[in-house]
Description:
12% helix, 45% strand, binds 2-acetamido-2-deoxy-beta-D-glucopyranose, Pectate Lyase C-like, 21-stranded parallel sheet, mainly beta
Amino acid sequence: MGLCLKLRTSHVISVIVILGILTLRVAECRNKHHHHGDNGGKIEYPAINCRKHSAVLTDFGAVGDGKTSNTKAFNAAIQKLSTYASDGGAQLIVPPGKWLTGSFNLTSHFTLFLHKDAVILGSQDESEWPAIPVLPSYGRGRDAPGGRLSALIFGSNLTDVVITGNNGTIDGQGSTWWKKFRAGESNVTRPYMIEIMYSDQIQISNLTLINSPSWFVHPIYSSNVLVKGLTILAPVDSPNTDGVDPDSCTNTRIEDCFIVSGDDCIAVKSGWDEYGIKVGMPTQHLIIRRLTCISPDSATIALGSEMSGGIQDVRAEDITAIDTESGVRIKTAVGRGGYVKDIYVRRMTLKTMKYVFWMAGNYNQHPDPKYDPKAIPEIKGINYRDVVAENVTYSAKLDGIQGDPFTGICISNVTITLTEKPKKLQWNCTDIAGVTSNVTPTPCALLPEKQGVDCAFPTDRLPIDDVQLKTCSAAH
Ligand SMILES: *[C@@H]1O[C@H](CO)[C@@H](O)[C@H](O)[C@H]1NC(C)=O
Ligand SMILES: *[C@@H]1O[C@H](CO)[C@@H](O)[C@H](O)[C@H]1NC(C)=O
Ligand SMILES: *[C@@H]1O[C@H](CO)[C@@H](O)[C@H](O)[C@H]1NC(C)=O
Ligand SMILES: *[C@@H]1O[C@H](CO)[C@@H](O)[C@H](O)[C@H]1NC(C)=O
Ligand SMILES: *[C@@H]1O[C@H](CO)[C@@H](O)[C@H](O)[C@H]1NC(C)=O
Ligand SMILES: *[C@@H]1O[C@H](CO)[C@@H](O)[C@H](O)[C@H]1NC(C)=O
Ligand SMILES: *[C@@H]1O[C@H](CO)[C@@H](O)[C@H](O)[C@H]1NC(C)=O
Ligand SMILES: *[C@@H]1O[C@H](CO)[C@@H](O)[C@H](O)[C@H]1NC(C)=O
């Protein structure tokens, strides 16, 4: 596939191998269930809610030639379908074709469904991307102090929204944005691919997302968010192409995703310094499972660096990373305030990593000089267990903040094998406290061995675990 060509050559092999395995599995499925999935133009798909009304994008004058702008067609379609919100809701089918569009807004009780051969292409015409207010918990645009541009697919103050497909594609055509950003030629914050704000009951699933201008999927100030079965691909040297960024969200479940990215595969956030502290909305009750990540210069899962509203109760399990800088990384700084606590991680399989464990309090990027130097973050109750890592350069770099140690760190049942030329100091620890059990190579003195300890992982279920998907259908 074309995208591989853009990846750094040294990573191409592993990507191709993995994509090859996935393709093989899909091919097997298709043979076995010949009549399931795409049956005479009728497609069945799982969703939190099915819709009574249905329309096809071409009913609104859309042209799928990859050249004609369809921004008006998307907006007209969704405006029309919004009138069914209180009458069973509606779905908009995006049929096979290449559908160029600028930013458009979603509506409530609505499903956007992409056929497997549908490609939504992000417009390269900047006038197709309206400016919108900066996020209150950030106080400014993330790239630039000026404004920010609306996401390609944007939703605010909504209930019950599904963005799904039969593995259809959304291509942000990000390269022109990356070039401008790198050259410092933009005074406005690049758009995200999908951003949902102040919303409840969101599903984003069964899609391939490629080349976002910046972050891919950004649910913020929202609750009951299900992200499932996404393939997210960007060149490993593209700027800020985070995969999924749950930000000030409660009850989020991210599962079965495959992410190759130039930044963190998942970045858990809750606002930036004094702005995040003021808004005070944590990200909490977050499940991340069955994630595969490739990101040579970033984290598999980052907690922060913007964590000023707090991050609590994160449960990550069955995580695979290949050729990635670190596993679950905590990034914070003086001035952030907030907390990162009750973090649970189990069953990570890691191969070719710079760091297995990494946490630090020196991420000194601030929105402006008005941050409060007395706002120190609280980092405690961080649990990692059942980890196998190979070809590792540093086992751990764990640096708390002087006078503000990171405490309650527990690491158990971990086997790390090192690269041919490992660093001499494998565990570099300052200003931290906790215990380890059955970990090799031998941890630092600040994490003494406590025999027989299995670090905690919660056994209760979260409400987002119990969300049931119905079988809906789409004709095209
Ligand atoms: C979806 O498409 C991507 C890109 O072609 C592919 O790598 C992935 O295996 C597909 N996923 C499914 C479930 O078919
Ligand atoms: C989309 O929503 C934003 C924020 O609510 C609003 O500013 C903008 O005008 C909307 N765009 C359209 C085309 O309705
Ligand atoms: C950004 O730059 C453009 C052109 O260089 C200029 O017209 C615009 O006023 C600037 N916007 C802000 C918010 O500084
Ligand atoms: C959206 O919800 C937020 C938070 O509840 C509220 O402050 C804002 O006014 C709402 N916006 C609209 C357009 O209703
Ligand atoms: C969506 O993906 C899941 C696996 O993640 C699969 O079970 C389901 O059949 C897929 N649905 C469609 C319509 O492709
Ligand atoms: C230790 O971790 C490995 C790898 O996840 C797992 O297979 C094994 O069951 C764990 N052992 C214990 C005692 O939990
Ligand atoms: C091991 O890691 C090094 C980088 O430290 C990398 O160059 C090498 O290709 C990796 N080896 C294998 C077998 O993956
Ligand atoms: C250990 O970490 C400290 C604090 O970040 C750093 O100053 C020091 O250089 C590190 N030591 C080694 C040997 O890497």
